[in-house]
């Protein structure tokens, strides 16, 4: 496999595992603040991030590349309030979109068509993830001064279905 692409994909595996850690940390923050619906939603998203990492892990293996698991930094643990915690994940998703776009640029420049096509899934996924985080951020911002509003959103977020387990055959 192309060495530059292999290295960049391993860095993306790392970024997705960091996303997993960040969402878990935000889940712990909300759980500690008795917003269990928010905590549940963040925990489901953490599972999705784990799946994103594993999809790349499987692709590297399929293409004869070498998976290199890098150390993961500790994420932040405290935020000034619910909207700041959601804003942290929104900003993170925006940064991840930038990374995915750079990866597509690299795979294209290296004529690695298989990687380019595989990455289209991530390009689409990021559109959805940014939009979801953006909506949630603005809704939380609207109601932040009202415990009733926050509890309404909390109840809605509690209904998020669990993420499906990753399938290597996909
Ligand atoms: Fe894997 Fe939320 O991006």
Structural write-up:
It is a single chain. The protein is mainly α and 170 residues long. It has a single domain (3-67, 77-157), classed as Ferritin, core subunit, four-helix bundle (Ferritin), CATH 1.20.1260. The protein contains five helices and no strands. Helix 1 (3-32) packs antiparallel against helix 2, helix 1 (3-32) runs antiparallel to helix 3 (82-109) and helix 3 (82-109) packs antiparallel against helix 4 (113-143). The longest helix has 31 residues, at 113-143. The model has no long low-confidence stretch (mean pLDDT 96). Residues 16, 19, 49, 52, 93, 96, 129 line the site of MU-OXO-diiron.
Distance between the amino and carboxyl termini: 20 Å
Helix coverage percent of residues?
over 70%
Order of helices and strands: HHHHH
Taking pLDDT < 50 over at least 5 consecutive residues as the criterion, the unreliable ranges are: none
Tell me the name of the CATH class: Mainly Alpha
Structural class, by secondary structure, is mainly alpha
Count up the domains: 1
Helix count? Answer: 5
- Note the main sheet: none
Oligomer: single chain
Level-2 CATH architecture: Up-down Bundle
What is the gyration radius calculated from CA atoms?
17 Å
List keywords for this structure.
170 residues; mainly alpha; binds MU-OXO-diiron
Give a quick precis of the structure.
This protein is mostly helical and 170 residues long.
Give the SSE map.
Layout: H1 3-32, H2 36-62, H3 82-109, H4 113-143, H5 147-157
This protein binds MU-OXO-diiron.
